[in-house]
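Before a colleague's protein record goes any further, I have to sign it off. What it holds is a sequence and that sequence's fold in token form. My question to you is simply how this chain folds and whether the tokens agree. Thanks in advance; the entry in question is below:
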Amino acid sequence: MILRPTYVKKIMAYIDAPFVKVLSGVRRSGKSTILKMIADNLRGRGIADDRILAYSFDSLEHEEIKTAKLLYDEIKHRLSKNGKTYLLLDEIQEIKDWERAVNSFMNDFDVDIYVTGSNSRMMSSEISTYLTGRYVGFRVFPLSFGEYLTFREKYVGSTFPMSFPPVIKTIGSTYSEFARYLRFGGFPALHLREYSVDEAYTIVKDIYNSTIFTDIVKRSQIRKIDQLERIVRFALDNIGRTFSAAAISKYLKGENRAIDNETVYSYLRNLESAFLLHRCYRYDIQGKAVLKTQEKFFVCDPAMRYSVLGYTSDSVAAMLENIVYLELLRRGYEVYIGQVPGGEIDFVATRQENKLYIQIAQRIDKAETEEREYGRFFSIRDNYPKYVLRADEFAGGNHEGIKTMHVANFLLSNEF
């Protein structure tokens, strides 16, 4: 088991605090393993095994526990009489009205609770009814580039030293591994051994199917599955481009499949709730206002797109944006598309008093490309850091105060 210390450190900062620790994220992103890491961390603090109760509700072992009352009755008799009990409840969304049971545990007993889940029941809007002010959420993503390198060293035996973040010996190895990460993505299961591209995408397509049919179709009682999947394909094919529900409706109408805008929005919300897609709004930098039209969507992992649509070289630029977007979310930034006169800034990222502006280019091999990527920053008059991230070879250095970095180096950087 490879540690993911970034998550463990964030979560364990709240140990014994009167909050339910809620870990949510797309299926197979590593939530269950992180829960095991939390259990190990508790043992390392001297907490006895009889004070740590762990349940996995997607296991047949606990198939009979279907409701909040059954969960409450099961656990209350097993709570420790020798101090606080630590409850680790995996895939808790399988329990009907689980929030009620968790709230009762918090009220009735001396417990510290950690739960994980993979669908819309774990969204803050859903759990706030019973747990208002009593939970803290942690979004778990597939492996970052730094975590991916650690997995590669452990399981495949690459040349990278065992540390986190990894210290790369050669620039060439960094970039070649980044190219592989761009194709294979960050689902941990793909990096426990060496897989071919077809084998890897077969694994991810199974994750996709499980998410679509279990977390969306079944729970939302969607009847027109073909319609849903066409919307998924449209969204995946337009990663990095702004579009609206009207654009999807028009696309489907062209395929003789009529659908109204509200239904499109409902499907998109379901895809967000299952953590397959992330919505990114536009932000008017001069007007300082969020624009809730013509937003962009990004996918939970590059391999998810490729498993559904197949790999094409013309998708690389969009996936570079996608990878940077996910990294910013991992680090706790709120991320927007920046609207400036005459164009867009790929990302405006804010975190408390920090702000970053980012442009991303697969390559800059023409003067007009260079002018476009750097020039859009010139209308921004503040002094927050501005980055142009590239995936080609280039001479180092800054350009009129704008930092230029390879995307891989940015992802491994500790400066933002």
